[in-house]
């Protein structure tokens, strides 16, 4: 994980939505499964709530068998 992309969002965004927007998952079903299995971390802490509201600057990491993928939240007005 050499460079972490920053994904701009307008206003509030939930974890499941962010995973889709950032391209870390293909669809909501995949996001739900990975979150429920404990494969997603926000700022280094496992997050199991798909509806968790993300804040500006938070780091979202997805841990899979093929590696760790991440994106950072950037809230713009």
Please give the structural blueprint:
Blueprint (H helix, E strand, L loop, with lengths): L5 E5 L2 E2 H7 L6 H9 L3 E3 L2 E2 L6 E2 L4 E6 L2 E10 L1
Parallel strand pairs: 1-7
Antiparallel strand pairs: 2-5, 3-4, 3-6, 6-7
Helix pairs in contact: 1-2
Question: Could you please describe the fold and organization of this structure?
Answer:
It is a single chain. With 77 residues, the protein is an alpha+beta fold. It has a single domain (6-76), classed as Structural Genomics Hypothetical 15.5 Kd Protein In mrcA-pckA Intergenic Region, Chain A, CATH 3.10.290.10. 21% of the residues lie in helices and 39% in strands. It has two helices and seven strands, in the order E-E-H-H-E-E-E-E-E. Strands 1-7-6-3-4 form a five-stranded mixed sheet. A two-stranded antiparallel ribbon has the order 2-5. The longest helix is centred in the middle third of the chain and has 9 residues, at 28-36. It is globular, with a radius of gyration of 11 Å. The termini are far apart. The mean pLDDT is 95.
What's the CATH first level?
A: Alpha Beta
H-E order: EEHHEEEEE
Biggest beta sheet summary:
5 strands, mixed
What is the subunit organization of this protein? single chain
The 3D shape can be described as globular
Strand share of the residues? 35-45%
What is the domain total for the residues? 1
Distance between the termini: 28 Å
CATH topology: Structural Genomics Hypothetical 15.5 Kd Protein In mrcA-pckA Intergenic Region, Chain A
Going by helix content, strand content and strand pairing, the class is alpha+beta
Q: Identify the CATH architecture.
A: Roll
> Percent helix among the residues?
10-25%
Kindly state the number of beta strands.
7
DSSP summary: helix tally: 2
Rg computed from alpha carbons, rounded to a whole number of angstroms = 11 Å
What are the low-pLDDT stretches, counting only 5+ consecutive residues below 50?
none
- What number is the mean pLDDT? 95
- Strand line-up in the sheet with most strands: 1-7-6-3-4
CATH homology-level superfamily: RNA-binding S4 domain
């Amino acid at each position: 994980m050499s460079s972490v992309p920053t994904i701009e969002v307008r206003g509030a965004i939930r974890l499941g939505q962010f995973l889709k927007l950032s391209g870390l998952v293909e669809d909501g079903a995949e996001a739900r499964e990975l979150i429920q299995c404990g494969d997603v971390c926000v700022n280094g802490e496992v997050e199991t709530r798909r509806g968790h509201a993300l804040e500006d600057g938070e780091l979202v990491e997805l841990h899979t068998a093929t590696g760790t993928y991440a994106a950072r939240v950037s809230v713009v007005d």
